[in-house]
Write a structure and sequence with these properties.
globular, 5-stranded parallel beta sheet, 15 helices
């Protein structure tokens, strides 16, 4: 079966790998000159910056994509544990580190918070494990054709209710921990789902399990090594990847509906052509794909009227000078305000009055990401992220862009990071308007939020009855946002194509 994959992001590459492993004839088309999509690469003055996700978890999901091709992941990508996984600092001056291994993390909590909190962590970790095992097979690694699929078979759904999965995440975490520091470090992951801890469902504690219990890893060469390695394995397995090819539209038999016929493309030399296919797997941001590649095709309600996740401002900066003492690979600097900061972001559509900031320093574990100019200077690459409203918010980014940049620079300088004008060698600043120009709906790289009616069978499906042979992949469809989910979405897309062939 001839299948064209539009987009060489992680979802598209995962789908291509699983399709190739199932014997399909696969062609991957990518408009950029390198693979990766949101997991991209920015090179500035000898510095190399990952432009997308910085936290890699659940490596077995990536391994399965390589195995589908008959390859060993370790031949293409080398993953190393990040330990500590996070360093969290709080307004009261205290600090907590999240370590690999339950015993080591229990020791950290006992030393920083106290013995009762350490016992609470043990109970919380047990609950997280049970929640993850239940969700993995029945609610995450599964295609849905109807909301009724959520309740059948009945026992997993009842078990999810028993575990408190449909309660609020913030309350569930607080039921285990009295200390605000633990509530924050084990609750902030709701932001990956586009929601505040007080409004996210407790089922999204599964994200906390993935990074805080299963562990965080980092690829040699940076995060972009993941899509680069997967693309190399695909080519070795005989899959064709064409770069610099712009897909203008997905061609349907009846114009705005009907059986997929292929894609119309513009090649790097400016020529255009129709590439025929029995199925098309579409990786661009789902709402953007509907609007630009499938004009006239009936859109799901959540695409037309969906609730989108907050966005982020991202500052890539290459610096010289010493880092603050005890700086880790991932540093979360929590503000004092918590619920109020989320209300600023999610309800008022404004900048957080007291924001929490993520500072990732990839160069601590991967020196090749920074240049060696032979002058003996210490150099590091900083990835500084602050949550901000998406473009549905109230911010005029033509006015606020420079102000937020300067504010981040002042705040990081006060924390001891070397970010003065004399320290900075290169920099790039990304705001929601930049994300929108990169093809992300509402200027957010985090897609539709995971409100209940945008979760599981209520999320825009990866197939539509109006266009047989069309399959979506990526964070806008099942199962959702995040590297693990996107890799799973590729496997689910391959299963959908198999279903088409069996009919």
């Amino acid at each position: 079966m001839r299948t064209i994959v539009v987009g060489a992001g992680l979802g598209g590459l995962s789908a291509a790998a699983h399709l190739r492993g199932r014997g399909h004839d696969v062609l991957v088309l990518e408009k950029a000159v390198v693979p990766g999509g949101r997991n991209g690469l920015l090179e500035l003055g000898g510095y190399r910056f990952d432009t997308g996700p910085t936290v890699f978890t659940m490596p077995d999901l990536l391994r399965s994509a390589f195995e589908a091709l008959g390859s060993e992941m370790d031949d293409f990508v080398t993953l190393k544990p990040v330990d500590p996984m996070y360093r969290a600092t709080y307004h009261d001056g205290s600090e907590l580190r999240v370590w690999h291994g339950r015993d080591r993390m229990t020791q950290e909590i006992r030393e920083v918070v106290g013995p009762e909190a350490a016992r609470q962590f043990g109970r919380f970790a047990d609950w997280l494990r049970e929640l993850y095992v239940l969700e993995r097979d029945h609610f995450i690694d599964a295609n849905f054709d109807s909301p009724l699929d959520l309740a059948w078979p009945l026992k997993p759904a009842l078990d999810l209710v028993r575990l408190g999965g449909f309660g609020k995440l913030g309350k569930k975490v607080a039921s285990y921990f009295d200390d605000h520091r633990l509530q924050k470090i084990f609750g902030f992951q709701s932001m990956y789902a586009g929601l505040a801890p007080y409004e996210a469902l407790a089922i999204y504690c599964v994200i906390t399990y993935m990074d805080s219990i299963e562990g965080v890893y980092f690829p040699e060469g940076g995060m972009h090594a993941v899509p680069a390695g997967l693309a190399a394995a695909l080519e070795k397995a005989g899959t064709e990847l064409r770069y610099g090819v712009e897909v203008d539209r997905i061609v349907l038999a009846e114009g705005t509906s009907g059986q997929v016929r292929g894609v119309h493309v513009t090649n790097p030399d400016g020529t255009t052509e129709l590439l025929e296919a029995d199925a098309v797997v579409c990786n661009p941001d789902l709402p953007v794909a509907y609007r630009t590649l499938l004009p006239g095709l009936k859109q799901p309600f959540n695409v037309r009227h969906g609730h989108y996740s907050p966005s982020c401002a991202l500052w890539h900066v290459g610096v010289t000078g010493a880092l603050p003492e005890r700086t880790a690979h991932h540093n979360i600097h929590f503000g004092q305000e918590w619920d109020g900061a989320f209300e600023d972001l999610l309800k008022r559509g404004t900048l957080m009055g007291d924001p929490s900031i993520l500072v990732t320093v990839h160069s601590l574990d991967e020196p090749s990401l920074v240049p060696d100019r032979g002058d003996g200077a210490t150099r590091n690459s900083l990835y500084v992220l602050e949550p901000v409203p998406n473009l549905d918010g109230t911010i005029d980014w033509t006015r606020e862009r420079d102000r937020l940049h300067d504010s981040l620079q002042r705040r990081l300088g006060a924390m001891g990071y070397p970010v003065s004008a004399a320290d900075i060698e290169v920099e790039a600043f990304v705001d929601p308007t930049d994300w929108e120009r990169q093809g992300m709906e509402r200027g957010t790289p985090f897609a539709l939020s995971h409100k209940f009616l945008q979760t599981g069978p209520f999320r825009p499906n990866n197939v539509t009855k109006h266009a047989p042979g069309l399959v979506f992949v990526g964070s806008g469809t099942l199962p959702g946002v995040g590297v693990p989910m996107v890799l799973i979405s590729g496997k689910l897309a391959a299963e959908r194509v198999d279903q088409l062939e069996s009919r």
